[in-house]
Each structure stands twice: as C-alpha cells, then as structure tokens.
Design goal:
By secondary structure, the protein is α+β, with helices and mostly antiparallel strands. It contains two helices and four strands.
C-alpha cells in the first residue's frame, strides 16, 4: 500500500449486487505502513465485495486504496494453501479448520 493522508482507514462491505452491508474502521489517526490487514467482517456473513478507503474527519472519501471481490478462484487458491498448511508440523489446525468451514459457507455466494 502506498502512503496516503487522511484521518481514517475504513473497509466498506457490499454484497455482490453492490448493495451496502457494513463498514469497519481499520485505523484512525496516523496512516498505517503495514501491507497486510486482517479484517473481521462485522455481520458474520461471507465477504463478497469490499473496498478499503481513506476518509477525512467528516467521513468524506479522500482515496480508494483497494477494492476486491472474493471469487471462487480466490477461495480455491486459499484452499490449496490450507491443504499445504495442514501438513506442516506445529500449524494451528483448529484455526485452519475454522477457515475451511468459513470457505465452505462462502462458496455459494462467490462469483466464478
């Protein structure tokens, strides 16, 4: 992620149809430098479409940092990674199993 100015970093969730579902504040104040963010979806539903935005104090969007749609090809790639991690000694198998279950629940909603 390239550096940017703003007061809040938000992730906005949408359904695949484009309908608004929820917003989560990732960071307020200083801009983060990390390139990997782990975001929990606030409604507990499968993530379909999300946009990472920077806003000012009034909530006006200053910049769209990244948008993504979770597709079945993304899910298949992650399943391959999980299959490998399952065979690695010392990996957290309960966490891997939770992700398998999450992907299974998300599969019907993900576009091809």
């Amino acid at each position: 992620m390239e550096p940017f100015e703003g007061s809040k970093l938000l992730i906005v969730f949408y359904g695949c149809s484009g309908s608004y579902e929820a917003t989560t504040t990732v960071r307020t104040g200083l801009t983060p430098n990390n390139k990997c963010l782990r975001i929990t979806y606030p409604l507990g539903l499968p993530v379909e479409n999300a946009t990472l935005v920077v806003t000012d104090d009034l909530g006006n969007v200053l910049k769209t940092v990244k948008s993504f749609i979770i597709s079945r090809s993304h899910l298949m790639n992650r399943l391959s990674e999980l299959d490998y991690l399952w065979t690695v000694p010392g990996e957290n198998r309960p966490a891997i199993m939770k992700e398998y279950v999450a992907i299974d629940g998300q599969w019907p909603y993900a576009p091809p």
